[in-house]
Amino acid sequence: MFSLLVVLLGGGCKEEQYTYGVEDVLVQPVDLSGKKSKTPEQYLNILYANLYQKAMSANQLVKATDVITSIGDKQVAYETVISKFMNDPNIILPTEESMRTDPEAFVKETYQRFFVRVPTEAEKTWMINFINSHPDVTPEHVYYSFAIANEYYFY
Amino acid sequence: MKRRDFIKKSALATGAITVPYILPTGRLFAQTGSQMAQHVVLVMFAGGVRHQESILQKYLAESQELDIEGNIMYNMLTGDAPELKVVYGTTPAGQQPGVQPISRILQTPLDQQGTLFPEVRFSKAGTGHFVGLSTGVSGHYGVTQGLRQRPINPTIFEYVRRYTNAKATDCWFVGNGIGNSTPLLNHSDHPDFGYRYAANFFAPNITFGSKGVEFLKGFKVYHPDEELVPIREMQAFLNNSFNLAGKEIPHLYNTDEEKADIKDFIRTTFERLENNQVSFPPVTDNGDLSTIGYTTEILRWFKPKLTVVNMSSVDSCHGSYTSYLKSLHRGDHAVGHLWNFIQTQVPEMKDNTVMMIMPEHGRNYEPNPITDENDWFAFDHDSDANSRRIFTQMVGPNVPANLRVGSELNPVGDAADTVVTIADILGIKQDVLARGLVENNAMSLFDRI
Question: How many structural domains does chain B have?
């Protein structure tokens, strides 16, 4: 009797559980969690390197940081400094021809340069469409947009 | 009509009738108090002003054991200037340094135009610059507050923006520089206030000085339609693709129009500088005077509801008494120029502005061992009784003229009163007091008269 009970309880039909090692992932835009905001020094250093393709001198960095600190609204401060850089003939920008000839390469390179990542397919498609549908947009406008975007304030 | 729709629409209709519209400031209605003036300018005559050389007009008599008294602040105070050992003025070619006093700007000194509280007290905390400035703008002695830290309690800027629905460009803090914690005084870290209600800030000697020339002057102005529209469109797309995960990039809640206006102001100020059109005081030979000059540009352009400007040159008294006297004299010149400018160059603010002047703290009675080129002793500020003696001066509409309130034996007023007084002038005193975040004993100076 006892043996029968053991067989009935222990040997019952049991549905097998499979584990694939895949967890649910919430798909969302580029995430800020784990990122830190850049200090003015970091922002300026990286910006300068992105636009001039060389490092900012220590002396220039101190002066530029002071200028940013002297203006309360940092967005105003950064945008003004960036647009000052944009007026400098020494800035290194892609040519409009290269952007128009191969917008995909231009968009990929711009994401890599400013955000240090590859664009998603959606991002790439939107940017390419935007460039193609706006004949007056220049590489400078695109660079300016990336430099004042929220993502660029973080690293 | 289905029942759910009926309930939803009924609720909406009822809400429209009974629930008042809540303003973005968190208030239901506009300010309740009456305004004495629509604009306030607070001059933080900071750096540590010794009572003996300012209010008491002792010149060298209670500092260097020389029997020479006199008033070197004759735009602010009534009294004759010293006749001997004049070192505080300008230096004409070939003459002794500082021998030429700067001409007065105001024919009637401010103490006759308004009310003077000659014996105000900096009653708590150590007499340090940042604690003093922080107390001046927050009405709260940050006894435990460290350097490089924003005020713990809300500043008057935050109260004004929150309770009067003021725009960000309605409130300005103009700093004499970016050292220490000066750029941090335009708003507090208080969780109920903070940067959402901050003042705009300029340290104009840097913004428009050689550094600003290098990194700002001549910045590119994009066409608002042909260039900025696609730029903003791309920026919006990039921002939408970037999840801030509940965080927010701190900014001052200037609207896009205000940001454009600030940029336009920066561009125009560089142009006015180039054309010698900036209204600097007649004598502008130190940082305080140029700061005041740029402040007049801010007043002319933005006509702010509240402007606080910080001076600091008198702090040279740590090492040079002669330099201190010069700075004190120039501070008075700066204040005279500012008041004259408001009354003559900004019609919207003329007769509609109350100006207040207050040092952030005083200086010691006893000197330190350092002597200057005249063998005069210097003075620090170490929280002795003398360094707690300050004054407050008010002038403008609804401020009684030619009135002195208080004396050495009967001090009236506290450094923490400034915030409540400004709130009183702008009609939000009850709102500020109701928050309970200023010193318990803080009062409007109008209530102390």
Answer: 1
